[in-house]
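One-letter codes give the sequence; the integers encode the fold. A sample entry reads:
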Amino acid sequence: MRVSFLAVECTVWVLARCSPFCRWLLQAPRFLSKTREMRRMETAGHRRLWEAVLAMLLVFGILQSASCVTFEVKDSANKTCIMADLSVNFSVEYKADIKQEKASFALPANSTAGSNSTCDKDKAQILVIVFGNHSLSINFNMTDEKYQVDELVFTYNLSDKVSFPGASDNGTKEVATNKSEMIAKKNFVYHCINPHQLNLGNVNLTFYAVKLEAYLNNNTYSKNESHCSEDITPTSAPTSAPAPSPTTVPVKKPDIGEYRVNDSSGAACLLAKAGLQLNLTYLNSHDKVVFKEMNINPKNIGVHGQCINGSASLNLSTEELFLSFSFTLNTTVSKFYLGEVNFTTTISDAKEQKFSQENGSLLYLQTTAHKSYKCNSKQTFQITRNFSIDTYNLQIQAFNISENKFGPAVECAEDQNGMLVPIVVGAALAGLVLIVLIAYLIGRRRSHAGYQTI
């Protein structure tokens, strides 16, 4: 198994919901780089040791599934022209009988670079990723100063009933786009950790933890990097004589609301309890970056939604905003997950007053059917680059609800670790008290050793 420091980048999204130890593990190399110890670890032996630790953690499941897949394309002279490490989530709408369904799946770890991948030094270079009877073609083009992904073509076969259960058609479909915005300088690596979303009609692609380069000269990645716009925060963009950006006073912690959606029979098909805080980033009329927080007030919110054929939606609305959560039931693995979020509001001081954000290729809150997901700790769900949602005291269940009550709760990692810390601290204190007591008894015994009874 090929494990390298790229494996750290490929676990970013899982680490968002992993334990503090996992997050520390990701940050450890950066922290140590500031110390003399890291300088010693930069030797090849220490680097291999660190990679071995990562490999063990991956095997034992401490760092979980969000794996990157590595690809390499070589020419007839066995020279590498394209290298790529990336993760992709696919969301595909298709027909099943008379209704529309949505299939969501990730790029499998056993994907390969197809034989029709090509290396052309002066013209287009193509990486064709093959998995099952589906393929994703990434076509590169180069100018004098830069190269870019000129076209993306996704070909999928509806006869794959595991990925597309109940599909009415069995044929092969193809969708394409030439709007990827994946671009880098010549002899630079394109690097993008945060999600980069592409809409291809009925197909949404979400790339993340991406590291790729085409038109290679030395059979390996270049040292310089070009970062995507998603990884560059608005405040880090260089400006001349920047004026202070407006600051937003943080709002208080949101109130906890309880929400319910019924099916056609009147029984609950979706239950939710949470405090919701919305985080917006936008440009105001003076082209200054503004960060705004909005709380959902459960007392003044309209609640509606529906549950139809493995899809459940919760819609919250007022005169000022509309927020929609869409859940999908994957009957193949008996799990439900949050697959789509839509948000619209009007911001009076924004350069574009209508603020509309949408992501239809999410894989958040995956939970076994008949159970609920519960997290009392604060969690942040990044929906788009400019929009995220903080949840407090969250408990949610879609589908398979019995007696209009939450099913057994699956607790988030943050809550589990929150319970672990007091136990560890208590055990440490108990051990310290025991050590002090033993030392006292030993010391007392020695103090009487020099006296004899008369």
In short: The chain is about 15% helix and 45% strand.
